[in-house]
Amino acid sequence: MGLLFNRRKSILDAGLLKGAVDNHSHILYGLDDGVKKQESSLSILHFLEEEGVSEVWFTPHVMEDVPNTTEGIKARFEELKSVYFGNLKLHLAAEYMIDVLFEERLAQRDLLEHGPDTVLVETSAVAPPINFWEVLDAMLKAGYRPLIAHPERYRYMDKDDYRRLHDMGCLLQMNLPSIVGFYGDSARARALDLLDSGWYSMVGSDCHRFRAIQTQYQAKELKKETIRKLEPLMAGLQDD
After folding, report:
1. Residue 72 maps to a domain
2. Per-residue b/e over 14-33, b at no fewer than 16 CB within 10 Å?
3. What is the pLDDT of residue 6?
4. Are 174 and 150 in contact, with CB atoms under 8 Å apart?
5. Residue 237's pLDDT is what?
């Protein structure tokens, strides 16, 4: 058992961050439950750049309990860009909880897109909104493609739900910490299954803290075949 464990690699050891795009993070400081101070944001960006990451998406929470405005998020983004002098390509979007506030913003078309006509959305880990599928349909009819954040963490979903999301044209984004067991064995098993099915389109760190991302990326949990399947996802959008 010890020999088998020693054959496993970490995200860093496997070189998966070289040229990678981090599609989901809470690095933009002072907006949600993520990074609190500008210095911490800069430290994380420096770490990611040193490890070879090429692009980072800032995706602060927007929900009824954290009602960040589009204007406020954009202003903070400009503040950070004014003091960041590294080589990472920085992008701005948001992670929208599917709730009443999101439906209002959707109706107003007041959304920060994750790429053209694509919007990053999430739900509770334990239960979907009552009108979950209806909201996704409304997004598609409005010309937005739903990008589902960390679907492997949704304990209420089964394989048929994931297949339905994939077949209706939603994109699925894996949290890299899921694949190393950070959210527990169930989330890791779901992540591996979705990876094997080829249903993920991109990955993200979902980084909230510097120390946490360092620990997650150093965990020696990845088998060779998992690394091989992750490699094409790391550089950005994979879409069939």
Report:
1. yes
2. bebbeebbbbbbbbbbebbe
3. 56
4. yes
5. 65
DSSP letter at 166? H
pLDDT tens, position by position, 217-233: 999 999 999 999 999 99
Q: What CATH number is associated with residue 158? A: 3.20.20.140
Q: Which residue has the tokens 């998406």?
A: 57
Residue 8 lies in a domain: yes
End-to-end CA distance of the chain: give it in Å, rounded.
38
Tell me the one-letter amino acid at 11. Answer: I
CA distances from 212 to 62, 93, 205 (A): 22, 22, 10
When divided into structural domains, the chain yields a total of 1
Phi-psi sector, 63: left (phi>0), alpha (psi -120 to 50), beta: beta
Rounded CA separation 179/222 (Å): 8
238 confidence band (pLDDT: 50, 70, 90): low
Which helix (DSSP H) or strand (DSSP E) does residue 55 occupy?
Answer: strand 55-58
pLDDT digits (tens, 9 = 90+) for 138-193: 999 999 999 999 999 999 999 999 999 999 999 999 999 999 999 999 999 999 99
Whole-number Å distance between alpha carbons of 191 and 187 = 6
Whether pTM > 0.85 for this model: the answer is yes
Indicate the pLDDT class of residue 235, thresholds 50, 70 and 90.
Answer: confident
Instruction: In whole angstroms, give the CA distance from residue 50 to residue 229.
Output: 24
Kind of pairing between the strands at 171-175 and 145-149: parallel
Two structure tokens written together for 209: 């803290």
- Within a domain: 239: no
Pairing of the two strands 55-58 and 89-92: parallel
| Structural domain boundaries, residue 217 | 2-233
